[in-house]
Write a structure and sequence with these properties.
It is a single chain. The mean pLDDT is 96. Helix content is 37%, strand content 15%. It has a single domain, classed as Alpha-Beta Barrel (TIM Barrel), CATH 3.20.20.140. Strands 3-6-7-8-9-10-11-14 form an eight-stranded parallel beta sheet, with helices on both faces. Strands 1-2 form a two-stranded antiparallel sheet. It has eleven helices and 14 strands. The chain is α/β, with parallel strands linked by helices.
Amino acid sequence: MPIHTVLGPIEPDQLGLTSMHEHLLIDCRVLHVEPETPPPAGDQVRIENLGWLHWNNQGLLDNLVVDDAAVVATELEAFAAAGGSGVVDMTNVGLGRDVARLPEIARNSGTHVMIGAGWYLHPTHPPEVEASSPERLAELIVAELREGVDGTGIRPALIGEIGSSHPVTERERKVLTAAAWAAIETGAAVNVHVEPAGAHGVEVAKLLTGEGMDPTRIVLSHMDERMDLDYHLAVAATGVVLEFDTFGMEAWWKIPDRDPTDDVRMGRVAELLSRGLGDRLVLGCDVFTKTCHRAWGGQGYQHLPARVAPMLRDHFGVAAEELETMLVHTPRRLLDRP
């Protein structure tokens, strides 16, 4: 079966090292958090505001919009130069999805770009989500998977990232149910955004498997934002794939909440590998703001192949075969669908 990219289907063996959770063109101003103090140098992302943004990552509206295709292509060129092959763009409905511009980015960067289908968190839902039954929402997802998005003919490689808040809202449950039904009908995998504060990954996994989904086709995002080993093992016990996808982010969100550091993330990956979970882990950087990009002072997409993979190998004892499973073989399996 093929893997659907924005430039058309490819054979699975054409896809190498893959970041399973990124964003290319995105408008996530709906996620803006009003800061307690104003930025020191106006309302734009600039070097004088970078320190402030490290403590107020979602506090500046300008930081939450990435719409320069040339910049994104250049960032992906660096990813490819470091050994990257493909990225999954999880920018779905409600986050400024602009699928028509993605083929140009893929061509200019020499990178395989895959996209997702479905809806994000409750506040981002368009009116039709509230008005529609889960059956109708499943039909809409299936139509995108089979016919393409917004008249472009570009077919998503998977469903996601589907939003789940803490607690999961009833409307989000409806979307999750629809995603499960669409996945069963089409064979697509489902990726779910899980809020780290909620630790509700087991609940989400059971909701999807309760509808009949194969747990090995379920990916739970942002598992690395909550460093609780018992929680990780409980989620793994459901049979789903855990996604450690915020490498490169070490910001404060609001006191006392902050991202783990990359060395902590890598240590947990090594711990889970030692417990035999190598085929149940995938990785990414979740580049979603300007300041995640190298052009604005961040680590960029290239952080995964350039730094994370070598560090895991050289300093955390992760074998080459284990890296290949997480970065190549499991992504191929998850993205491969009819």
